[in-house]
Structures are given as C-alpha cells and as structure tokens.
Amino acid sequence: MRKGAISRFFSRNQMLKLEGEVLDMAQMVADKMLSWAGKGPFDVKEAFNCFTADVISQYAFGEPMGFVAQEGWEPNFATWVKSFLRSAYMMRHNVVARKLAQVMPIMADYLGEDVKTVMRQMNVVIPGYIRAALSNPEKGRVFAELVQSDLLPEEEKTMYRLSGEGFNFLLAGTETTAATLTVITYYLLSQPEMYKRLMEDLEGLDPAKLKWTELEQRPYLWAIVHESLRVMPGVSHRSARIARDEDLVYRTRDGKKEWVIPRGTPIGMTSMINHWDPELFPDPDEFKPERWLVDGQPNHKLQKFLIAFGKGSRSCIGENLAYCEVYLMAAIMAIRVLPRAKLHETTVEDISYDHDMIVVQTKKGSISVRIKIE
Q1: Domain boundaries along the sequence of the chain
Q2: Cβ atoms 311, 305 nearer than 8 A
Q3: Which CATH architecture has domain 2-234+286-373?
Q4: Residue positions in the annotated binding site?
Q5: pLDDT per residue as tens digits for the range 288-337
Q6: First-residue to last-residue Cα distance in the chain
Q7: Which residue positions form the known binding site for heme?
Q8: pTM, full prediction
C-alpha cells in the first residue's frame, strides 16, 4: 500500500520531467569541483553524496538540504548516517537493541555526535521540511501531493509516518547512487583507454544540453553504467523477504536437487552473490564494460541477471531517479571534470567489496576515491 502510493512519483515519466533539475544540480557540483583546483585533494564520493542528497530532498520536500551550496563537501547526510549503518546489524538481530532504538531520541545525547545528529534529522529537520512542504503545496512536491491525495488512509499521514518515509528517501537515495558514481570516476581515471573510448562514445554532445534519454543510447556509456551497478549495487546486505501465501520451490541450475522453503519463512540474498557468479559474469573481479556489449550494442539479455535495484514487487522505487542521476552526472564528469582530474593516493582496494554494513564496505571502511583538480 505504501509503495503503491509513493512509486507513482518515481515513474520514468516523472523523472523525465525532473531531469532538468538533476542536470542543473550536476552542473553545480562540477563547477564546485573545478573551483577546487589548487585546494588539494578531496573525496569525490562526498561530493556525490552532496549531489544525491540535494536532488532527492529538493524533489521530496521542495527544497535542497544545501550540501552542494556549502563551502566544502562535508558534513553531509551520508556523514551523519555512518553511525546508524554501523549499528544496523546489531539492531536487526538484537531485540534489546531494537527496543533501545525506540527510545533513541532520549538517549541520543549520550551516543555520540553522529547519532545525535541523525536523531535530530529524523525528529526535527525532516519534520520541518515536511511541514514547510505542506504549508506551500505549490512547491511542496512529493509530500505535499501525497498528503493532499487519497492515495493513503489518514492514519498513514501522521508526522511520525511521513518523517520516517522522508528519512528513508534520504537514506536510500544518497549513499547508494553516490557509490556507483564513485566507482565510475575511479575506473575512468585509472584506465585511460576506457576513458578515451567513452569520450569517443560521447562525441558531439554539449554538456549544457545533456538529455538522459540520449545518453542511454550511447552504448559504451550504457555498458559502463551497468558494469558499475554490478560491482557497486549500493545496497549489499541480504534484503529480507517473506513469501506469506505460497511455498517456494528452489531447484539447482542442473535440476538435480530441489528444496521447498515453507511459506512464512524469512529469507534473504545479497545481490553480490549474483553479481560475482562467474557463470553469469566471467572474471567477476575485473571491471569490464565490454561484457555488456554484443557487436558494440547493449546486451539487454544480461540485464535480467543484474539485481542492483532488486526485482519484482519489492524492487527499489528510486531506480529511475538513480539512472537519471548516474547518466547525467557521469557524462558531465567525463566531459567537464575528468580532463583536469587525477587520482590521489587511491587504489582499487579503496572501492573493493570486503564486507557490508547495509552498504558496501572495503577493508578500510566506506569506499573512498580521492582526486585532485589541476
């Protein structure tokens, strides 16, 4: 019910209407990056975190959170939620921890600045944005329309519910897409031949007039985007599912074994299992955009094995927004920023999956790609 009410705001047609705002925000990020010349290296992922958070907040609430406009790249929404992500598995498997989380607003002052800031976002900042949206319906965007509509019953329109949904928007729409863009940036800077081929693919485009639908038609960019989603799907944890009304029959690929999973059984699988299956993606540790092309054109058949956004009725509602952001920002980075950028003290280990805390983590922690602008 909740997904049905919200997903209409994230349809492909709605995102095509929004792409002008996404492009404007991407241009602002590129301008800010280029102004960093001579100021030393910075983590490009934090720049992308600012970009994605401002895009989703502008669309959801009617105004950006101001991360791109601030002087530096941090703090941003992703900076604050790192402590939240570190505690997610404890709360998922520990009943006592979950109970404590319910009184977190009371305890926040004793749990560190990051947790305190996250709770302030949940209990003060996001409700403030939603109240502002409701008081100005013409500019209030998603939440104003949602409350005015009959898409949800009245009990679903409480500030508590709406604030939780707003926090989910920011949590799901920030770190995930930023990570994919970070991987694209790393490989384009670390593999000059790949970057050269992409620029040939983008030849003739005016960075001021980029169109999402046109960028999708550039085969090599399409391949890079999908390979990036394979190695960096955003959410890497085992998404929980329950088949309530039917038994699930699982058969091995060779058909020799079969299991029945009784209805009502909680199950989960990480997308990393599929994305690193050598039978589906040979040499899975290698970043190979070419695997997505057949005779130089997109291999759409391979897409069915990509589950970066999930599948079916529980797939990510923000998939269209994510694609819009990735195509536009990746093209702007390639055309405007990367000719003047170089990697700084960054290796493939800084983006390589080691474990997850809801999102992909490296051996050092969160993924990070530092660049310098010349």
Answers
A1: 2-234+286-373
A2: no
A3: Orthogonal Bundle (1.10)
A4: 316
A5: 999 999 999 999 999 999 999 988 888 899 999 999 999 999 999 999 99
A6: 51
A7: 316
A8: 0.92
